[in-house]
Design brief:
Layout: E1 3-4, E2 8-13, H1 17-28, E3 33-36, H2 53-58, E4 71-74, E5 82-83, H3 112-115, H4 117-125, H5 145-159, H6 185-196, E6 202-203, E7 213-214, E8 220-221, H7 247-253, E9 257-260, E10 263-270, E11 276-283, E12 289-299, H8 303-312, E13 336-343, E14 358-361, E15 380-385, H9 405-415, E16 419-426, E17 435-443, E18 449-454, H10 459-479, E19 483-487, E20 530-532, H11 547-566
Parallel strand pairs: 1-12, 2-3, 2-12, 3-9, 4-18, 12-20
Antiparallel strand pairs: 4-5, 6-14, 7-8, 10-11, 11-12, 13-16, 13-19, 14-15, 15-16, 17-18
Helix pairs in contact: 1-7, 1-11, 5-11, 6-10
Domain Glucose-methanol-choline oxidoreductase N-terminal: 143-333
InterPro entries: FAD/NAD-bd_sf (IPR036188), GMC_OxRdtase_N (IPR000172), GMC_OxRtase_C (IPR007867)
Family: Belongs to the GMC oxidoreductase family.
Length: 573
């Protein structure tokens, strides 16, 4: 028998970055907020012995259990989709903090061009450059950089971002709250080479603290120890901005916030044609079912699950690639990395580092370079990073070396501290044949259909990636590498090898309900009191990591939730 619980003002589905931001802001305004988190509670005290590469980096201690829920995948709409049975291309987080616990900390702002890519491209190059006849579906986001800038600033101060001005970046209302991280030997070499090539390098904006920091809400973070265990790991020092050390404590201090763990939301409960009245969840331990009523429901889980909950709850119209009708599931994008590895005679302390310790440049990002004679739009940021070469997953060998035997061992040992990689993190183009759906055959542990991902790299993705890879190789040659291997040839997308966790789209934002799921406040077009926030709102993916922009959107959404609760109805831009 389903039990109905006491109503709250706001319920969030998930307690990661977005859920934590919504909770902190709403709770500070006096609203009663509940986060339903299907994982467990955890925090810095749980990570005192986290330096175990086998446990965390290879056996995915902090990741989603794919035996309970996964995705099915195919490259093309006419193929059969099959389940991803082990973590591969992307690493979904679980428990309080979500993927915000094990992220590296790269915290860029998307460019003004990103938010108005269709109109800016058409203005500069003409409509034909959008290549709509080849299936590309670029669209503006319904919001501009200038409108989002205050929210970017707020997120950076909450997270204590360490950084410096981007020579090619947009205007900022304030400087970064912390100075940049240390500049190691390899970063200095990259900087010198880039400047000799007339590029504009700058230190990568980092959520690893360059010094002790107290954010505007009074949350304290320690200084980074450069231990090299960031990606796939939690921080034992409290020196990496995560939800557990920032927004969640802030929310709890108000006395207006509660997290219920082991609570897996399986349905959004509709209330007529334009409202929802709460969610249904299952206690993952007892298997009991509950209804949680709320004035406002905010989907703040990972973008794949945000999409799934809308679909199984029959909210919005599913996208159909044949007719291109419907908005739910459209414009799914991923990310590519075209780069190169340089082999040097000298050694570097690459076994030390931090998740976001790096030097980057934007000379080939967005529309910062002329695309007139190029067969792709956008570009990517280029960077070299020193995130820490850990012994199991670090086997730097030259192209053509066998992946086993004496030569492999000798090359691995020799090159372990003698290689530097430079890579372009590339944007990806939305295409009408890349989308999310649900699977009619495979179900999760709770009887719900799995998300079905149909995705392949586009011709633009391949050309863009190759372009950035070749530019990366040129930088390494200028840095003095004795040998350079360039990796820029994309074949079909494969969900097995890890590439990034930067999935975007499926619940895109915009100013037209015919082409978007939510408006500029992240308010669902079909239900006034339902908000959806995350990377699923992106209409395409940029040449940057998504978290900074997700954080800005979450603060924008929080403001919308508070406005709505004071005066229910459709929010105006």
């Amino acid at each position: 028998m389903v039990k109905e619980l006491e109503k709250v003002d706001v319920v969030t589905v998930g307690a990661g970055w977005t859920g934590g931001i919504i909770a902190a802001e709403a709770a500070k305004e006096g609203l009663k907020v509940l986060s339903l988190e299907r994982g467990k509670r955890r925090g810095t005290k749980n990570y005192q012995h986290v330096h175990d590469e086998l446990k965390y980096a290879l056996r995915y201690e902090l990741m989603q259990d794919v035996t309970k829920e996964t995705v099915t995948f195919r490259n093309r709409p006419n193929e059969k989709a099959l389940p991803m049975r082990q973590m591969g291309s992307f690493l979904l987080g679980e428990h309080v903090g979500g993927a915000g616990t094990h992220w590296n900390g790269w915290t860029y702002r998307f460019m003004p061009y990103d938010f108005e890519i269709k109109s800016m491209t058409e203005e500069r190059y003409g409509k034909a450059k959008l290549m709509e006849d080849k299936g590309y579906r670029f669209q503006d986001w319904g919001i501009t950089y200038d409108e989002l800038e205050p929210y970017f600033d707020k997120f950076e101060k909450t997270a204590g971002i360490s950084g410096e001005d981007n020579p090619l970046g947009p205007e900022r209302s304030d400087k970064y709250p912390n100075p940049p991280m240390v500049k190691t030997k390899s970063l200095k070499m990259f900087e010198k080479a880039a400047k000799e090539l007339k590029y504009n390098p700058y230190m990568l904006p980092s959520a690893n603290m360059s010094q002790e920091y107290t954010n505007p809400d009074g949350e304290k973070m320690g200084a980074c120890q450069y231990c090299a265990f960031c990606e796939r790991f939690a921080c034992e020092y409290g020196a990496k901005a995560t939800p557990e050390v920032t927004v969640i404590p802030t929310a709890e201090k108000t006395g207006n916030y509660e997290i219920r763990t082991d609570a897996n939301v399986v349905e959004i409960i509709k209330d007529g044609n334009d409202k929802v009245k709460g969610v249904k969840f299952v206690d993952t331990v007892t298997k009991e079912e509950f209804i949680q009523p709320a004035d406002v429901v905010v989907l703040t889980s990972y973008m794949l699950n945000n999409y799934k909950l809308l679909r199984v709850s029959d909210i919005g119209e599913q996208y159909d690639p044949k007719t291109e009708k419907g908005t739910l599931g459209r414009n799914y994008c991923y990310q590519t990395s075209g780069g190169a590895t340089g082999f040097f005679d000298e050694q570097f302390n690459t076994f030390m580092g931090a998740g976001a310790l790096g030097m980057t440049l934007d000379d080939f990002n967005g529309d910062n370079f002329d695309h007139t004679d190029l067969d792709f739009l956008h570009g990517g940021s280029m960077a070299t990073t020193q995130t820490g070469a850990r012994p199991i997953l670090s086997n730097p060998v030259k192209a053509g070396t066998k992946s086993w035997g004496e030569d492999f061992k000798e090359e691995s040992i020799k090159n372990f501290t003698r290689t530097i990689s430079v890579a372009g993190q590339c944007a990806t183009s939305p295409h009408k044949d890349n989308y999310l759906d649900i699977d009619d055959e495979y179900k999760d542990a709770y009887g719900l259909p799995l998300v079905k991902l149909t995705y392949n790299f586009t011709d633009q993705d391949r050309k863009r990636t190759k372009y950035l890879a070749e530019k990366s190789g040129e930088v390494l040659e200028k840095m003095g590498a004795k040998h350079v291997d360039v990796f820029g040839d994309l074949k079909d997308y494969d969900i097995v090898p890890y590439q990034s966790t930067h999935n975007t789209g499926g619940t895109v934002m915009g100013d037209d309900p015919k082409t978007s799921v939510v408006n500029s406040w992240l308010q669902h077009w079909d239900a006034d009191n339902l908000f959806v926030v995350g990377a699923g709102n992106f209409a395409h993916n940029s040449g940057y990591n998504p978290t900074g922009t997700v954080g800005a959107l979450a603060y924008r959404c929080a403001e919308g939730v508070i406005k709505y609760h004071k005066k229910p109805g459709r929010l105006e831009k």
